[in-house]
Amino acid sequence: MTIRSLSVENLRSHRKFSRTLSRTVTVITGPNGSGKTTLIEAIMVALGGHSFKGTDNELLRRDAHWWRIDVKIDDQLRTAKYQPDAPKKKQFVVDDKTTLRLPANYRYPTVLFEPEDLRLLHGSPARRRQFIDRFAAQLVPDYGRVIRRYERALLQRNKLLKRQASGEELFAWNISLAKYGAQIIDMRVRLIERLNAGLQPTYDTIAQTKDIVSLHYSHTVIDHTEQKLLTELESRIDRDQMLGFTSIGPHRHDVLFRFNDTPAIGSASRGEVRTIILALKFLEVDIVKEVTDMQPIVLLDDVLSELDDKRQSHLATKFHDHQIIMTSTNPPAILGDAKVIRLR
After folding, report:
1. What are the residue ranges spanned by the domains of the chain?
2. What is the reported pTM?
3. Which of 236, 253, 254 is nearest to 245 (CA)?
């Protein structure tokens, strides 16, 4: 599967943009603020159903009343369009079928590598949870629905806590949080175990050292996770009412990295951290391909400038048989005869 062309209208800074893309490597270049990342967002909306940076309304060009994305994939044209004042604000059109959400069978896997990924270890727990959840949603299409239902239940419970609602009023939301929270924990743990199994050999290939790397979930998993979560939510009602928010659950968990048996955040150098992240992205490509039986499209958003020549070379070698669409202020020589699209 190959993206042949991309067209957008009224998307952030773009009034209108349309270009054909290379089957191998396309580099979108231009000064800061020229809308390079917006085009990566457009591809993710068309292939996965949503942006990685903002809401549908935030994608809308200032003073515009609608936006539209058209992506031609082989011989198939798919369209995503959004009009905030329409009865059906967002629609997808694929094979002449119109839907309000992009169906799972029409989603195509992408692996996004952006500068924020390189700050994953030093960022907030929320950033690490988002990394795992975004990855998991590509492997299990229903996982995104589970996350949304958990977040909706969490929002409602927190609202009730703030107004000192009774335990009876909270009970239904406690049940929902326990049900969906247990599913989230199970998926995260299984994915982290799978990543951990391949992290060390992949890191060794890039770094050529004897350092030991691993990642772990902060929550200890035991049998009957759903019941345990429900019991904890019930037992902490008084405390949570004082705090005004829900103090336990997967929205409070973390992904922990270790380097030579100590926390990586304090012991790994900047270069070692970058190698850990690069190894994770390599694993992401391999796992997505294995689980979905599809060759993911690789999206690199201004990330090569953050990597030294050695790591750039590893990245180019690893992804050489994938379609790569990337942004860069200055086109990197390492990608050879890539097609270059220059934005003003």
Report:
1. 1-108+294-344
2. 0.88
3. 236
